[in-house]
Amino acid sequence: MKFRLYIRLLFESLSMAFQSLISNKLRSILSVIGISIGIFSIITVFTAVDSLEMNIKKSVQSLGKNVIYIDKWLWVGGSNDYPWWKYMNRPNARYSEVRALKEQPVNQLLDAVAFTTSQSSTIRAGDKFLENVKIDGHSFEFSKIETLEISEGRFFNEFEDLNAKNVAVLGHNVAMGLFDKDKGLVGKSITMFGKKVEIIGVFKNQGDNIVNLDFDDDIVVPVKFLQYLTNETNGTNIIVKAKDNVGADAVYEELRGSMRSIRRQKPQEEDNFSLNKISFLSDAITELFKTINKFGLIIGLFSLLVGGFGVANIMFVSVKERTNIIGIQKALGAKNEFILFHFLTEAIVLSILGGIIGIMLTWGVSGLLNMFISGTESSFRMVLTWGNVFQGIMFASVIGLLAGLIPAYRASRLVPVEAIRSK
To answer: pTM of the full predicted structure?
Structure first.
């Protein structure tokens, strides 16, 4: 019985709340605008931050699944007890360590092991040239670690890698810059470091991403060929991919022990290498955006607070105007809880309407921004998630509840005789 009574009370309160809002259109619209601006501000901030985080994580995940990078540098974290100059003094990764790793027991847990380095050079093709082009040297197993989208041709094979063949796969922007096209280039030649290199493939246009992790502006060649051209050993690292049924976390300590063994480190010695998991970057990004979200929440709440004061002011006026009606209702037997619930419902409904409009504005702005961005090569997109929609409705409801609490309480405590006599 009590449940049915509460349901009836809810519907009656909603009906009276909507009637009150409709009968005071101008006042209701002004209050809704205040809440709408507040919700629009806070949800737009959340949407922008969440979209930025998703796009960065998507770019980072393109580095590979279950992947560990063996490098002299630690990407994130570290300790003040281990200064930067110690990282500098660590040895660079060597190609021979790739072969050594494949002879270790840990190799049974691995799907692929690749060696990589990079240099920059001027690239020529006929009378055209591009300066400071990044040239990535990879061993052939790199194609097993990262998904490589090639629009034409192929990636180099094991024979070409081990024999330092002068072959290359061009990034989309490099191909367009040298040949004004990205089709029909297989078999043509370019010149780097004074050597002719045959084009065997062209990467698919990946577009700009937030952290620029793509091959659009790069050229990829066999790593042994690049080292032969430059005789350079700096900036090298080893990339290891764990099997899908094993995972990077399970391989981590085994790989650490194997590298210590390969480098003949004594038990008391510190590691002279770093093992960098993709999850390190993802976790660091998550923590960073948690902090950014907190600042965004503070900024948005100021806007929302202004709207809350508007709703509270409107509710005080509404109680003042309807004092006679409240007195009559109480004289006819309406309990304090009914009056309290009715005015709280009115405040919450008013705020939720504002919240819905604010969320729709955020959705519209996101759509317009995405239409503008789609005309560029950027992969960034604004995404209004259901989580943010739920947050918007919750914020609006809480602000409505708080804004209507004092006016509703005062209305519920009015003395019937005095309320009826008031003008």
So the answer is: 0.68
